[in-house]
Task: structure prediction
Amino acid sequence: MPFRQIDELERGEAVSWDIERDLFRERTGERVEPVTARQAGGHLAAVAAGFDLTLFETFLTDVAGHARWGVTAELALGRLDRLLAGVLASEAPGLTLLLTSDHGNIEDATTRSHTLNPVPLLVVGPLAEAFASLESIVEVTPRIVRALAGDVPT
Ligand SMILES: [Zn+2]
Result:
């Protein structure tokens, strides 16, 4: 599947990595209108409604963990929190929201590097039970595949 592009972002059919588009504008020079993180969450939910699986990646928390571009942990986590609120407020039928990370770094302010700490896993929605006993990040993808195939524990 191709990544969404600027045209889709301008129509609210995509979400930029920085969620509110201001840093995206600053870094790319693209003249997209800013949105609130909550609005971006609504956009993400609307996109997800058209697919079995939608992947949204933000590296805003990574930028904060590396202490770059003036992005603080408060800014990154605040935007992420409001994005999730926007997704959940959409009350999209059948939507399961899964949030995780491929490594730590924002949780430890004593280092500007990636960490080996456990990462969060948040799953909300009808397929959440499929992830209940998960203990390692390497189990996430196989569980997603199983859940999409209808293999969900009861
Ligand atoms: Zn990094």
User: Anything to note?
Assistant: The first strand starts at residue 97 and ends at 99. The mean pLDDT is 93. Strands lie at 97-99, 122-124. Residues 45 and 91 are 9 Å apart (CA to CA).
